[in-house]
């Protein structure tokens, strides 16, 4: 709910040339490359507009990007044309992938995408990731410890240059947060699923073997898994 407005409002996810998007790339790049020494086939799952797909193509990987949102894939495809990129972008659902078993050397799930998925859905995503990964494949997942961030969300800390949080409603069981953002011009609401680090890791452990968890800042992580 409300994700279209959210992504329209925050360039960090939709404008690969913005300083916010570039900052995310610079933060993750050295860590990704450290765990991706061997070249191979990459699935950028929930790729958005594809900034990380292009990064890995530039480093010699064969990349495919998949996202459920047609607008995201349209923009990623436009960027690809502009960059003369060979990355193939397709519309699809991470919970039900159309690829054969053991297709990819790496699956990336970056940019705090967990906020889109209720536990049952994230479980389906992990199951599919495991299926499409090759035997010695690696799963790299970047997420924010939303539970750790909850006190700051509750305080309605100002975010970005244009939008601020004007209202936060957290459901009784603290499973989702309905956040209202406002700017001088407009307002919108978006519902995030609240995933804490422990919950993400417990669920992931049902499907994968942990290799390493890299702490990127106070609340965000890159977790690396094998089958
Ligand atoms: N990974 C990209 C990045 O780091 O820039 C995009 C991250 S963005 C926070 C989350 C993305 O997940 C959105 O582009 C959204 O459309 C996509 N998404 C949400 N549900 C999905 C699903 N079921 N299958 C595939 N993509 C999904």
UniProtKB/TrEMBL annotation:
PANTHER family: METHYLTRANSFERASE, RHODANESE DOMAIN-CONTAINING PROTEIN
Domain Methyltransferase: 42-137
Record Gene3D superfamilies: Vaccinia Virus protein VP39
The protein, known as: Class I SAM-dependent methyltransferase
UniProt-listed Pfam families: Methyltransf_25
Segment forming the signal sequence: none
Classification via InterPro entries: Methyltransf_25, SAM-dependent_MTases_sf
Keywords linked to the UniProt accession: Methyltransferase, Transferase
Keyword Transferase: yes
Coiled-coil features, chain-numbered ranges: none
Top-level taxon of origin: Archaea
BP GO annotations: methylation
Keyword Magnesium: no
GO MF terms held by the record: methyltransferase activity
């Amino acid at each position: 709910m409300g994700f279209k407005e959210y992504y329209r409002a925050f360039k960090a996810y939709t404008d690969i040339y913005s300083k916010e998007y570039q900052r995310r790339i610079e933060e993750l790049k050295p860590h990704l490359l450290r765990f991706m020494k061997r070249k191979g086939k990459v699935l950028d799952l929930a790729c958005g507009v594809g900034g990380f797909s292009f990064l890995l193509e530039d480093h010699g990987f064969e990349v495919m990007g998949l996202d459920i949102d047609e607008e995201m894939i349209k923009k990623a495809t436009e960027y690809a044309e502009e960059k003369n990129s060979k990355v193939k972008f397709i519309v699809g659902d991470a919970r039900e992938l159309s690829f054969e078993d053991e297709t990819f050397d790496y699956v990336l799930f970056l940019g705090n995408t967990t906020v889109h998925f209720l536990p049952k859905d994230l479980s389906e995503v992990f199951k599919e990731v495991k299926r499409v990964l090759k035997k010695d494949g690696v799963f790299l997942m970047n997420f924010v410890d939303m539970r750790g961030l909850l006190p700051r969300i509750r305080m309605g800390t100002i975010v970005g240059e244009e939008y601020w949080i004007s209202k936060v409603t957290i459901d009784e069981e603290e499973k989702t947060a309905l956040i209202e953002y406002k700017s001088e011009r407009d307002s919108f609401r978006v519902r995030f699923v609240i995933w804490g680090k422990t919950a993400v890791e417990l669920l992931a452990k049902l499907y994968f073997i942990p290799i390493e968890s890299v702490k990127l800042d106070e609340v965000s992580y890159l977790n690396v898994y094998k089958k």
